[in-house]
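Quick illustration for those who missed Monday's session on complexes.
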Amino acid sequence: MDGYRIKTVTARRIYDSRANPAVEVDIRLEDGTLGRGMVPSGASTGKYEALELRDGGGNLGGKGVDKALRNIRESLAPALIGMDAGRQREIDGKMIELDGSANKANLGANAILGCSLAACRAAANHRRLPLYAYLGGALAATLPVPMVQIIGGGAHAAHAVDIQDYLVIPLGEKTFAAAYEKVVNVYIAARRLFAEQGKPLSLADEGGLWPTGFKSNEEGVALLTESIARAGYRPGRDLAIALDVAASEFYDREAGVYRLNMENRELSREQFIGMLCDWVDRYPIVSIEDGASEHDWEGARMLTDRLGGRVQLIGDDLFATNVERIRRGVNEGCYNAVLVKMNQIGTISETFEAINYARGRGYLPVVSARSGETEDATVVHLAVAANAGQLKVGSAARGERTAKWNEAIRVEEELGPSGRYPGAGVFLDAGIAVFGK
Ligand code: PGA
Ligand code: ZN
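Prediction with zinc ion bound:
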């Protein structure tokens, strides 16, 4: 195709929202079109994710990306130059082949994803299409239901509480903009509630309120319920609660126990799952992510047996956006939803495969950013292109978060009447009885 061919690949070090180095790639096509890719990074990184290549050593906290940049310049760029940027599968396939490992350990998933993202941006720009339309074609028209963090915790807040994310999901509304407005009202109400309780207004890594002075993990769930009510909404009807437990972070694999460090308690698998079930009975919780550790398939199955009909159960660390791992989850009856993070698998093509595989088995895809983010908003386009139905990119505050929510507002406006916002239908259609309690 004319002008589609990749002419140059430029890699540079930028920095993410936690001040850690990150990979940025510029791909320029023969006609001069530019495409840029920026690579995010997690903190509660799953063991089964594709490998993020870091330099180690003393500089920049050991998080340098010079090796990844060198791999782009010396291995990936020479292979990509001359290729057709409009052929994403070929580009991604070529990089997977060059790397040659099962988890992108040789060249680094951060190096590969930077190029993958830059190539699709360049191709979209070349065709003068918004990224969602380029990636999804004419069928890309579903705005995602936002899952928004109100209180941060776990690895994103120095483990002040064990649970990582206390989030809300708006259930009604006909547009993304109206649904997101409700979330912002809850965020404001939560901020006021914190101020009344004399809690300092610090923000955790993803912009949620820092859980100062909490006496238990459950306190966050209660605070969220109260914030929804204070904002003038009905908890469980207008907005519901979602949790990212991130249980891999406090599971002791040897002992097979869940250690709630801030409560000084150690729970067996049965007791821990019992605690989550008890919360679901007493609070308007519609979604639980990583309610069991990435090493505890048995726990994931037990949780699914007990809650699968009325709660969305998302596998993040357990599935790692990896079709093989999702397949095992499907076969063993673990969870009913998949968190989708591009850098867990390392290319755009494989990310789409994971979404399509999950959906084909009745698992809901939830597109997600990372805790270390950039101002790039590609995840929004991915969610719309794949008609994923849900998007999780952190809280309502901090620029790297608003970069995504604001982009969704723009995309909705651009789609106009052809855009579809599913609201609570995203759960009801999957047989999850969100209003059932
Ligand atoms: P991470 O957190 O990017 O630190 O892994 C996000 C999540 O666990 O969903
Ligand atoms: Zn998670």
